[in-house]
């Protein structure tokens, strides 16, 4: 069964292996923990991830952000990051949700199913009326995922697509 679990609530070794192997920047999804040792993950990264979700120790202008792992049974297949609210920079940029699926699991519907789970989680937690997302212009698969989940292309620039998913009425178009 597919489920989202916040960082630190599953098998920590599997979480570490996932972030360790994930590229530092792939399709615009930034991973500060690429290549990190187990000790660094356990002693530095995980405490920072947990503090960020509580809004503690954030740099100026940052908002609370929770990292989730997408689990299929006992295996992590993806990672999602959820920003609890938007600043003006996030409103015009990265938005509420970012995600990546492990290369071995792409093309199997995990991004769509995971984004739907993330949207369900976000719906009662964000103060905004719609979820803001973005993806690289050349990442057609991610744009399709967002549109399948009830999104509409809001605008584009030379590098990015910006998508909005309304919180009211989303369930009719996304399931």
The separation of the N and C termini measures 17 Å
Biggest pleated sheet: 4 strands, antiparallel
**Element-level helix/strand string:** EHEEHEEHEHEHEEH
Whole-number tally of structural domains: 1
Tally of individual helices: 6
Mean pLDDT: 93
- Architecture, CATH level 2? 3-Layer(aba) Sandwich
The CATH class designation is Alpha Beta
Short description:
With 175 residues, the protein is α+β, with helices and mostly antiparallel strands.
Word description of this protein:
This protein has 175 residues and is α+β, with helices and mostly antiparallel strands. It has a single domain, classed as Aminopeptidase. The chain is globular. The protein has 6 helices and 9 strands; from the N terminus they run βαββαββαβαβαββα. It has helices at 12-21, 38-53, 88-91, 110-123, 140-148, 170-174, and strands at 2-6, 25-26, 29-30, 65-72, 75-83, 97-101, 130-136, 152-156, 160-166. The two termini are 17 Å apart. The strands form 3 sheets. Strands 1-4-5-6 form a 4-stranded antiparallel β-sheet, with helices on both faces. It has a 3-stranded antiparallel β-sheet with strand order 7-9-8, with helices on one face. It has a two-stranded antiparallel ribbon with strand order 2-3.
